[in-house]
Amino acid sequence: MLNFKNCVVIGAGNAGRPVARLLNHQGKNVTIVDSKKYEEFTEIRKDMLDVLKSEGVNLDLGVDNPDISEYDAIYLAPTIPESAPIYQQIKENDITVITRKTISDLINTIIDMDKIGITGSYGKTTTTTMITHIFKKAGYKVYQCSSMKWNLVSEAIVDDIVRGEYKGADLAILELPHGTLGLLGDLELKLGVITNLHQEHLSEFNGSMQKYVDRKSLILDMCDKLVANIQCADLLTYKREDTIYFDFENNNQDADRNKYSPKYRASYDEGNYVFKVCGDNPMEKTDINIDTVASYNYANLTAAIAVSLEYGISWETIKEGLELFTGVSGRMEHLGTFNGVEAYFDSSCSELSIRQALDFIKDENIIVVFGCVDSTTIRDNQESGRTVGDYANMVIATGYVEITGELHMDSALGLLNAIENDDVIKLALCSVDEAAELAMKYAKPGDYIVHLGIGGTTSYNQVKEKLINGLNEGCKRYANK
Which end of the chain is more exposed for a tag (fewer CB within 10 A), N or C? Predict the structure, then answer.
C-alpha cells in the first residue's frame, strides 16, 4: 500500500501533523515542512510538534520554498491551492502524492473491524458516548474515539493507533467532525450517522453552508447503511434512497414527514420520553429516560437508539446500556454545589445549542460565564449574545482563548453589546477563573452558574480547571457576603 520510503508532509497544521505521525509509525522516513517557525506556533501546537520530533519525525520549520526532489512521496495540506508552484515540482520529480484515500485505506487496514461513524453539527460526542454504552452492554469490545480525547479527532485516532488503544476490540465507534472527514473521508463504515446539520464552522468554508454540507455529506458514500436526522434531509448534497431517518419531534416542527418518512420517532413532554418505531413492525416505548438538565440530550438519545436497533441490539440491552450514561464532560456537566449555588460546565455557543442547554432551567436565576466564542474558528458572537440574553440574569464574558493563547476582548464586548434584554447585568473580564470568582459574589443559594463557550470542548481540561478554581476562590472570598 505504501510503496515509498522517504516522505515529506507540507504543512504542520491539523491535517499534516496526524499524517506525518501515522506514516512515521508505519516505518517511513518522514519530514514535516512548514513556513512558520517553531516559536510562531501556539503552545498546544508546539507540544504536538514535540511529540512528532520525539518519535522520529524530522521538523523542517520556517521554510518557504522546500526542495522536495529528495523525496519519493508527498502529502500536501488541503489549504495549499493546486496552482501552487510545488505541484510543478511534484510532476517534474515524479513524486507519489499521498491522498485522503491513501490515509483512509491505511486506517481501514489497521482498525480492521466494523466501524460506526457519527458526524453532524451538534451532538456528535454525546451520541457517540451513548452508542458506546449500549454496545458495551451488548457484549462488544468497543474501541471508541471522540473529541473528548483530543479536540482534533484525527490526531486522537492516530495517537490511539500509535499507543495500540484499538487492539483487542471488535467494533470501532468514531466521532467524525468535519475536519476528520476531510482527512479520512474514505473510511469504510458499517453504519454512518448524521445527528443534524446547522450553520457552524462556516468561517472554515468561506461562509458557505453548501461547502460545509458537502464535507459532511462525504459520509453518505462511506457507509453501508446511513441513519440521519430528518432535519437534514433537504440539506444533504444528494440523497440516498435507503437512508433511515429518525425524528425527535420537539426539534423538527418544520420537517416534511410526507417527503421523508421517518422510521424512528420520539418526543419529550413533561418528563416523559416516548420512542416509536414506525413501519411494518411498529413499537412504542416509554420506559427509557436519562438524568439530564439539557434538552439536546433527548435528540442524541433518539439517534443512539435508532443506530442500535439498526445494528440489531435488543430493546432491553439498549435500556440497560443507557442506564450507564451519566452525561458527557463539557455538556451541561454538573460540577457541584458551591455555597448553595449549582454550577454546570457546557461548551454551547450557537443559538440552537444554547437554547437546548438552558431550556430546562430557564425559570431559574442564571449567571452565565461565557468564554470567548472564537477558537481556531471565528463564530458569531452577536448571535451568542442575543440568545443568552433570553435566559441569563447576568452574563460575564471573557476574552482569553485557551487554545491559541490570545486575548479577544473585542469578542467578549461584542457578545455583551448584542444582548437586547436591558435587565441583564453585563460584565467583561479577561479569564474564566476571574469570571467564576466574581460570579460567586453575585450568586445566591439556589442560583445556577453555567459556563458556556467552545473552550469547554477545545480546551476542556484547562478551562474546567480554571472555572473550578475560580468558583472555589469565590466561595472563600464571598462566604460571608
Answer: N
Q: Which helix (H) or strand (E) holds 134?
A: helix 124-137
Q: Which residues of the chain have pLDDT under 50?
A: none
Let me know the angle formed at the C-alpha of 109 by 104 and 112, rounded to the nearest 5 degrees: 115
Alpha-carbon gap, residue 71 to 82, rounded angstroms = 19
What's this model's pTM, rounded to 2 decimal places?
Answer: 0.87
Sheet containing 29-34, strands listed edge to edge, beginning at the edge strand earlier in sequence: 58-61, 29-34, 6-10, 73-76, 96-97
Cα–Cα distance for residue pair 470/440, rounded to 1 Å:
9
Sheet bearing 366-370, strands edge to edge: 333-338, 341-345, 448-452, 366-370, 394-398, 425-429
Q: Supply 405's cell numbers.
A: 493563547
Contact assessment for residue 212 and residue 184, using Cβ atoms and an 8 Å cutoff: no
Tell me the residue type at 362: K
User: How many other β-carbons are positioned within 10 Å of the β-carbon of residue 461?
Assistant: 10
What homologous superfamily is domain 103-322 in, according to CATH? Mur-like, catalytic domain (3.40.1190.10)
Q: Are the C-beta atoms of 414 and 381 separated by less than 8 Å? A: yes
Which residue, chain included where needed, has cell 480547571? 465
The CATH superfamily of 6-98 is NAD(P)-binding Rossmann-like Domain (3.40.50.720)
Residues whose CB falls within 8 Å of the CB of residue 472, separated by 6 or more in sequence, listed in order: 338
8 A C-beta contact, residue 444 and residue 412? no
Residue 370 and residue 389 in contact, taking contact as beta carbons nearer than 8 Å: no
Domain locations along the chain: 6-98, 103-322, 333-477
Rounded to whole angstroms, how far apart are CA atoms 430 and 473? 16
- Residue 84 C-beta-side C-alpha neighbours within 13 Å: 14
Alpha helices in 242-350 (DSSP H): 296-311, 315-322
Q: Which cell goes with 307?
A: 443506530
- CA proximity to 122, closest of 324, 368, 356, 315: 356
Comparing CA positions, the residue from 312, 318, 310 lying closest to residue 244 is 310
Amino acid found at 366: I
Q: Mapping DSSP to helix (H, G, I), strand (E, B) and coil, where does residue 116 land?
A: strand
Give the C-alpha separation, 243 to 221, whole Å.
12
